[in-house]
Here is the input.
Amino acid sequence: MGRALGAAGNAVRSDKRVAVFMAGPVGAEDRAAGEAQAVDRQAFRDAMSRVGSAVHVLTTDGRAGRGGATMTAVASVSDQPPTVLVCLNRGSSTNRLVHENRVFAVSTLPAGAEEIAETFAGRRGLSGAERFVAGHWDRLVTGAPVLAGARMALDCRVVDMMEVATHTVLIGAVIAVRVGGAGGSLIYLDRHYHTLDP
Ligand SMILES: Cc1cc2nc3c(=O)[nH]c(=O)nc-3n(C[C@H](O)[C@H](O)[C@H](O)COP(=O)(O)O)c2cc1C
Here is the structure.
């Protein structure tokens, strides 16, 4: 077992099976400045890679134009009224579009949709409206594109947004829902795509 110092100068214990990154405690005077950075960015990313997530495509359309991005940071907030949140990188071109269009849709990808996921992650050299060559798209109420074969799709109006660190947390009021047919889902886990069959 090895022993080293973490980002905040705290003891880090590691062996082949486990790495433990401790976030505190630190001196009171350091706390305000240091706490937010106490955990190394890569350690956080490595930890989150162990969390299996459904893969979605967030899309938007309106006066700013059409675009979309692959997302795992999508969560239900409330069913009364139906509300979701998504965390969209402030540097993403889709972010600017959603800020202006004020609508977005979330399409949850079915098994076999890796190519759509990669296209909307910007890994096929396509941007903006060009990305919609991957998949078949239609619309529900707001005009944001929804994937025809999605496991489910939510059509949303932005009711709140919060700038937090590198991301915008978008709160969406769900205006329309479409539930897809039975079948497997695309899952992202340990930095790879997987299929989860019901
Ligand atoms: C599996 C996967 C999940 C992703 N999840 C998110 C996410 O939750 N939020 C986010 O902002 N970007 C996420 N990304 C990255 C965006 O898809 C990517 O940065 C974006 O599509 C780039 O868009 P742009 O070229 O329009 O800036 C994810 C990428 C992949 C491959």
User: Anything to note?
Assistant: The pocket of flavin mononucleotide is lined by residues 55, 69-73, 87-89, 92-94, 117, 120-122, 127, 188 (CB under 6 Å).
